[in-house]
Amino acid sequence: MLNIIMYHYVRNNEDYFYDTFSRRKDEFEAQIDFFRRSSEIVDPADMEKIKYYLNNHNEEAYLLTFDDGYKDHFYCAKYLFDRNIRAFFFPPISSLNGEILDINSIHMIIGVRGLKIKKILKVISEICLSSNFLLTLNKQKVDINTYLENFKIVDNYDDRNTLMIKRILQKDIIGDDNRKFIIDILIKKFIGEKSSKISSELYLNIDDLQKMKNMGMLFGSHGKTHRWLTNLNYFEQKEEIEKSLKTLKELQLIGSDEPMSMCYPFGAYDSNTIKLMGDLKIDLGFTTDIGASMATNKKEFIFKLPRWDTNHFWDNKWRRPCVFVK
Ligand SMILES: [Zn+2]
Q1: What is the mean pLDDT of residues 29-42?
Q2: Which of 266, 264, 297 is nearest to 54 (CA)?
Q3: Cα of 108 to ligand 1 centre, how many Å?
């Protein structure tokens, strides 16, 4: 089986003005060294070996993936390169254009030190009321008060208020422009920096990516604009995936002999997505479902590969890398 590990931020929070759920740099290094000692870290270009481990119940190995194209990943690539290890990186194309992905605006707003979650919700609520913005909840159009009263989704990561803010700002406000309007106000009010400056500090630029390519790193699609694919129809999804791969190829970040891979933004995919994987001749599809990856008797398993989060292999109590206890 293959333990595919997913990284997002790899940084020391004290170096930034906002907090993120991140792997600290020394933790990252300890974890990589642990993986190397306990098994093999598979070369992402080696499809034969990837398939070998996916079909082997007795032996396990690791495969490393990095989502969202953060500047943090340049340091990671360098660390891996020095140890002759390669990994998959998934930068969304819009992060290369000086835009801030909504997901990162949301992380920053939630992470500003000393800012209470309730205060953010209050501001969102006021804007929705004064601008008459509606939201989607359980497939119905509702106003913000109804939304806040009836929101019942739970997940393993966030408390209710934090999860509500994320869902409201990621997708539940009706109308993309309305959603962006609110995010912009929150960024100005609570962060107060220009988005171009934030973006250039947060994301890898093309020069960084090409240097990483020269270190032997592999790249795959994380969409053009990092949207929930499940909110899009077949043709809109095709545009997101096909265009992003085209751009990565034009930048010579995907070589003709390398596997074509797709990492679904927010881990979201549906039957259209899976059909597209075949139609676009993509080799591997990465989800955010949690677990070890194993071949099944369904051919499409290769487009639904689960991953572990880096936290699943980190013992927070004793602050050391560990094997996930199954
Ligand atoms: Zn992402």
Answers
A1: 96
A2: 297
A3: 15
Q: Residue 257 CB: number of other CB atoms within 10 A?
A: 6
State which residues have CB under 5 angstroms from ligand 1, the bound ion.
67-68, 265
The per-residue pLDDT for 241 is: 97
Q: Over the stretch 139-182, which tens digit does the pLDDT of each residue have? A: 999 999 999 999 998 887 789 999 999 999 998 999 989 999 99
**Burial call 81-111: b when 16+ CB within 10 Å, e when fewer:** beeebbbbbbbbbbbbeebbbbbbbbbbbbb
- Tell me the CA–centroid distance for residue 58 and ligand 1, in Å: 31
CA 47 / ligand 1 centre spacing (Å): 23
C-alpha to C-alpha distance for 281 and 259, rounded to whole angstroms: 10
Ligand 1 center to residue 74 CA distance, Å?
17
- The number of helix segments (H) and strand segments (E) in the chain equals 12, 12
Dump pLDDT digits (tens) for 192-202. 887 788 889 99
**How many Å lie between the centroid of ligand 1 and the Cα of residue 76?**
17
Q: What is the pLDDT of residue 118?
A: 94
| pLDDT tier at 266, thresholds 50, 70, 90 | very high
Cα-to-centroid distance, 107 and ligand 1 (Å): 12
Residue 273 half-sphere exposure toward CB, CA atoms < 13 A: 28
Residue 226 alpha carbon to ligand 1 centre in Å:
6
Given a cut of 60, whether residue 326 has pLDDT beyond it is no
In the chain, domain spans: 2-97+204-321, 102-197
For residue 26, the CA-to-ligand 1 centroid distance in Å is 23
Distance from the CA of 177 to the center of ligand 1, in angstroms? 21
Domain 2-97+204-321 fold = TIM Barrel (3.20.20)
Pairing of strands 305-309, 314-315: unpaired
Report CA(288)–ligand 1 centroid distance (Å).
10
